[in-house]
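Dear colleagues,

I hope this message finds you well. In preparation for our joint manuscript, I am sending the ABC transporter ATP-binding protein (Faecalicatena fissicatena) sequence together with its predicted structure, so that both groups work from identical material. I would be grateful if you could confirm receipt.
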Amino acid sequence: MLDLKNVRKQYANFSLECSMQVKRGSITGLIGANGAGKTSIFKASLGLIHTDSGEIRMMGKTPQQLTNEEWEKIGVVLSDATFPNILTAEDVGAILKKMYHRFDKADFEEKCRTFAIPMNKKMKEMSTGMKAKLKILMAMSHQAEILILDEPTSGLDVMAREGILDALRAYMEQEERAILISSHISGDLENLCDDLYLIDQGKIRLHEDTDVLLDQYGILKVTESEFAALDKQYILAYCKEDFGYRCLTDQKQYYMENMPQIVIEKGTIDEVMKTMLKGSSRKGVSL
Ligand SMILES: Nc1ncnc2c1ncn2[C@@H]1O[C@H](COP(=O)(O)OP(=O)(O)OP(=O)(O)O)[C@@H](O)[C@H]1O
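The corresponding C-alpha cells are as follows:
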C-alpha cells in the first residue's frame, strides 16, 4: 500500500535514511523521540517534501502520479495542517462534502456527537482535544483506503484516546485498508499496531511484528560479572546501568532456558526503545 525504499532527505543538521512498508490489512506504527524524523517520513510519503533519493510508492504510484480520485483514498492527519480556525465542524463537513465524493455526512455528524465535538463552535474556540478528535474524524470521513496519521492522539485524554483507538480498529474491519500511525505514547501503538518501526536520528533501528516484540523480546538485567560471562549471540543492544548492564534480546526463551538465574523482563515497547536508544548513546555501546 505504501512503500519507501532507501528514501534519503538531507537537512542542514539532520539526515533521514529510511525504508519501510505499510501493508494492506495492517496497522503499522512508527515510534521515535521528538525530532527522530517521523513527520519527515509522513511528508515524504505524501510528496509534501522533496527527497534527495530513493523510491516512494503510494498504492503503486509516486505521490506525483496520483490522480485526484486516488488522493481521495488517502486520509491524513498532520500536526501542522488543518482548516482555518474560524470554521466550525459543520463548515468543515460542508467543505469535505464538496472535496470528497465518498464523504459520509451522516456518519461524520454521528461521530462528532459520539466524540463530543460541538458542531457550531469555531475551531479557535475548541479545546486542543476537540481539535485533535475533529482532525481524525476528517481523515476517516471519506472512506479512505489508507490513513496516514502523524501523532493523532497527541493532546487527548485517556478516555478520548481509547475512543479514537476503538474507532481506528473499527475502520480496519473493512478489508484492504491500512493505517500508518505515529505516536510517542507507546501504549497506544502496542495495543493497536500489527507491526512497529522504531526510528532514531533519521534511521530505522528496528522493525518487528508487535506480537513477536511482546512475546520474544526481553530485557536482561545482569551484573558486571554476569555480563562478562553472558552468551551475547542473541543480544541486540546493551547499555550500562548502575546495577550492571541492561541487554535487549529478541530470543528471551533462549536465555530463560540456558541462564535461568538471570533476571529477564518483558520487552515492552518502552523498554525496547530505551535500551536501543541508550545502547547507541555515550553511556552504552551498540553491539
Ligand atoms: N524544513 C526543515 N529544514 C531543516 N530541518 C528540518 C526541516 N524539517 C524538519 N527538519 C529537521 O528534521 C528533523 C526531524 O524532524 P521531524 O519533524 O521529522 O521529527 P519528528 O520525529 O516528527 O519530531 P516530533 O516528534 O518532535 O514532531 C529535526 O531535526 C528537524 O529540525
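For the figure legend, we might mention the following. The CA atoms of residues 86 and 122 lie 5 Å apart. Residues 11-12, 14, 32, 34-40 surround adenosine-5'-triphosphate (CB under 6 Å).

With kind regards,
E.M.
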